[in-house]
Amino acid sequence: MIRFGLLGCGRIAKRHSDLLGGNHIDGATIVAVCDTVRSRADAIASKFGVPAFHDMDDFLSRKDIDAVAVLTPSGMHPAHVIACAKAGKHVVVEKPMALRLQDADDMIRACDEAGVKLFVVKQNRFNVPVVKARDALEAGRFGRLILGTVRVRWCRDQAYYDQDAWRGTWAYDGGVLSNQASHHVDMLEWFFGDVVSVHARAVTALAKIEAEDTAVATLKFRNGALGIIEATTAVRPTDLEGSLSILGEKGTVEIAGFAVNQIRHWRFVDESPSDKDVIEKFSVNPPNVYGFGHQAYYRHVIDCLMNQRAALVDGLEGRKSLELISALYESIETGVEVPLRFAPRLGRLGVVP
Length: 353
What we know:
This protein has eleven helices and 14 strands.
């Protein structure tokens, strides 16, 4: 049994606590929770009959905590993950793992030095339609990839941002790209591979926040494919969609719904007998934008911890999408195309004269 502590008892903690404390994940349970806001910690602790802590050091000193789910504001993730690692706890950290690449590097190093595992929450990779599309990709059914797009058209009104002072701030949250769309940015990179460069624009259209609530971007992938990101929390009055489109020379798949949960199009040049049933069999209807992926994600975490398996999204993998998000923000600030990888031009190493 892997015994979890929850660090941070805000909005997303309900999802994590219900799964871990409600006997939905074999081999996992909650043993303690912690939040500086006493009412939040006490509410979850009372629901699952576990102790509540309001001081992180006291919380981390418990010997019965094997792993900690870090569910605090994004800007606080680095300090909290590093503290967990130094306390000898495995770490599951919500997206994005950090807001700065240097912080991500420090988190990875701390976990490596402490000999603990670091998992970054990217639950959409475990969505049933996404898994099916990934299988098709690995089987080569798309052929050469041509174009990938993600669309995040969600509603986050002012009341949402006013729930907590950190929401929409540069220091602790960022905007739609770093928060709501970070899962979808990860999806695009996971399917299409390394990004060469990006060009992005953003505005703060409706919300009274520091960061952006609406952004668009174009991407160039190393394999020659192009990508498009469209992300906004300015849809009114309700969420519209969270989708992924994969276009290749031999096939097209679009996964839509409001949580990348419904296969809208599944078409391949070389048809398989099972293709006609894919849309019906591999679409799901979750009750909210979190989807059903968290449950499969935690099962994966437990498997990794108990059987010493490699994580699908470890610190290095989580850093990749953060690097892409950082490049998007750099392009927004500078107005120019931003490269993601260093390309040597003047170095003579390996160059034949």
